[in-house]
Amino acid sequence: MSEQVQQTQTQDSRLGGIAWALALVPLILLGIIAALIVTTEGGLSELSGPPIEQVSIQRIILPEPGRIVVEVVNDGPQDVTIPQVLVDEAYWQFTAEPSTTIPRFGRATFTIPYPWVAEEAHEVVLVTELGGTFAGEIAVAVESPAPSTDLFARFGLVGFYVGIIPVLLGMLWYPFMRRLGTQGMNFVLSLTIGLLVFLAVGTWLDAQEFAAELPQFWQGVPMVIFIALITLGVLIAVSSVRQGQESTPLGISYRIALGIGLHNLGEGLAIGAAFALGEAALGTFLILGFTLHNITEGVGIAAPIVRKNPGLQHFGLLLLLAGGPAVLGTWIGGFAFSPILATIFLAIGVGAILQVVWEVGKLIARDSTRIGLPIINWVNLSGVTVGIAIMYFTAFLVKF
Amino acid sequence: MSNQFEKYFSRRKFLGFGLGSVTSIIGAALLGRSASAQDETQSNGHQMQSMSGHDGTMMMMGEVDHQRNGFDPLQILTDWDYGEVSQLDSGQTLREYTIDAGDIEIEIAPGIFFPAWTYNGRVPGPTIRCTEGDRIRIRFRNFGSHPHTIHFHGVHPFEMDGVPGAGDGEIGPGEETIYEFDAEPFGCHLYHCHALPLKRHIHKGLYGAFIVDPLEGRTPAREFVMVMNAFDTNFDGGNEIYAVNTVGFEYMRRHIPAKVGERIRVYLINITEFDPINSFHLHAEFFDYYDHGTTLEPTSRTIDTVMQAQAQRGILEFSYRWPGPYMFHAHVTEFTELGWMGHFNVVNEEDFADALASVGLDAEWDQRATQGSTVPWREEASES
User: Fold this and answer.
1) Which CATH number fits domain A56-138: 2.40.50.90, 1.10.287.1770, 2.60.40.10, 2.60.40.790?
2) Rounded alpha-carbon distances, angstroms, from residue B169 to A352, B164, B165, B175
3) ipTM more than 0.95?
4) For labeling, which of A39, A199, B199, B289 is most exposed (least CB within 10 Å)?
5) Domains of chain B
């Protein structure tokens, strides 16, 4: 047995210079073959078909009346040239930065002086060298918000109502929760699970929505899956560092706050982006809807720490961690929206939320076992159901 | 988040929420760029004028390389093809043509290339011009990749109809045939490929003008042939580029020279595919219109728009009283803004040479425009 171990170790130690050189052999050969194919076509010339043109319109900005700015990414297999641009089925003069020819993975910004009409719809079509067309829609023309102190404050206020206020209000149930018995607390914890499961699903769907708009080469859908899984794995690994020791309730609260924070970031992004795209008519009613919808989030964060009050400072931090990102998201979404960042943050959010579902689940399992009940009992089941139901029905206020 | 918020909330309310007063920083930064776009427009081409408001310019970017295309829309206006002329024993005039079908890529708008099917390497094909009663003999050779035909709008025996199942039917790649018939009735006609599928064979570019002069001739005039056509560049059953004589906005970039007071005659043909109608609207003047050109008296007098269904055609006659760059375009404004728009550059006699030179034309072009008829003008008739 020990001999074997030693043998392995000697094998390990043989990974010296020659071994590494051997590892490079396939790579060197690959390089040679690639060079051969590129220079001589490697007998593949017959296979070359007609050119494939593919671009993706990332964003259309209306910086001021009389001007449309279109951001384009080439996500096809080769260079694309866009000699002409149509706005509402009419050819318009434009400038292209840096060029009308966009290399693969490259970007270009097309600026078109065009008298767009406020609150009406427009369509921009890029016409390629081969006559291919790529359309981008301006659903409702609204001047794109440019950073200003005034707007910054207003967006911040929206984020405040959507993120901070509901989490704070939810946390104020803490004193009430402290007076609950084990069964009552299990109900609240189960309710938290229901809430988190709902958020996980919602965050997942939002992530997919953004992922679908990414240029092809990002492979949006698998990216969301893998980022969520890796996040889940990393968080489980982090919380299992202290072997045998259970996660502290406060630690769970922080991770719940993180997951919810990422979800709220996504909500903020979507609200801000909707503002920027002129798609959202965000009335007071809608903001109120979000406040209501998110109020259980505070309950979820406070639930694990019912037995031991961590002090006001921690409550403050938890509040910032969970609610603050809504403010941040509204700013980013409104002023500098990036679908790729949105997708990544939301995917992380999915992983983080799933991890706390797992942890809160363990808490409930422990408590239920302690009082001699099966893990899935009527109290827990109804808690989960009520949690999902609250989220589902309050979502009526914000889904149109 | 849903993009349907607007359905439930008034957009005005949304604006009232606080975006109305936003000052644009990005916009200010972009003003510099717009100026450069305008400069480019002005330095681009000889006489480029465009629909330019203070908010931007409705126009394509750049220019088309006509040399690479192998044909020039300004030349197509006047390059009548009389064929090889001889006399039959009966005394009838024989006009012999060779028309070759072939596949070439043509630039139909600056930077946009279309895989066209062509007659004699150009779109529209050669403008066949003859006198009524002439014998027309066309040797048609197919160098293309698909079977083609030539179907003439005119009077001829069934075998000469140029449709599948008539005479030699569809002429396969590498094959050839002869179409022969007497030119009648006089008028402004057209020919096109009638191979199947018909839509594709037409919109790929296989068509041309067929002008039959009446025996008695028409009043002298500056004559132009204008074939209203369009191209579906992404093959979705709708056109991306509209034009007369193929190149979108070409007569916006280079205006067609004409003189104050002279009679202008336009042989107008609509071969636009997919759209039910096309139209011609003349600015600042009215014209007389001869539907199909088969009458010597106008079928409509004093109109300034005329509508044509596909393959409908006619002759327009008008003259300008004052000099100026007069616009003409389809009054289907969608087509206008997609390329079907141009200008006549109407000038006084003394400025005409400059007008020609400014768009790269010469006296030969002028002569073709004014002496295009196959019927020798009879002095005695003009005096009467």
Assistant:
1) 2.60.40.10
2) 71, 4, 5, 11
3) no
4) A39
5) 66-375 (2.60.40.420)
